[in-house]
Design goal:
Elements: H1 8-19, H2 24-31, H3 35-45, H4 50-83
C-alpha cells in the first residue's frame, strides 16, 4: 500500500479545517488530494487528537512486540513437548 505524503497530525489538522466550516472541495484543492481521500480520512480519524494517535501508535507497537514474544514462547513450548 502506498504511503501517504501527509502525516497523521497533518491529516487531523486538515480534517479540523473541514469541521471549521470550510467546504470539502476547497480543503481538497488547497492541500491537493481528492474528496474520497478526505472522507476516508474522516471515517478513520474522526474525533481523534494528535495525542490519541500517538498513543494508538505506541499501543500498536507494543501489541506487535507482545505477539512476537508469544509466538517465540509457543514455539519453545512445542519444541520442549516434542523432546519430552
Amino acid at each position: 500500500m502506498r504511503k501517504s505524503k501527509f502525516t497523521e497530525s497533518q491529516i487531523v489538522a486538515i480534517l479540523k479545517e473541514g469541521e471549521a466550516g470550510m467546504p470539502v472541495a476547497e480543503v481538497c484543492r488547497k492541500h491537493a488530494f481528492s474528496a474520497p481521500t478526505y472522507y476516508a480520512w474522516k471515517s478513520k480519524y474522526a474525533g481523534a487528537a494528535v495525542s490519541d494517535l500517538t498513543r494508538m501508535r505506541e499501543l500498536e507497537a507494543e501489541n506487535a512486540r507482545l505477539k512476537r514474544m508469544y509466538a517465540e514462547l509457543a514455539l519453545e513450548n512445542t519444541a520442549i513437548k516434542d523432546v519430552l
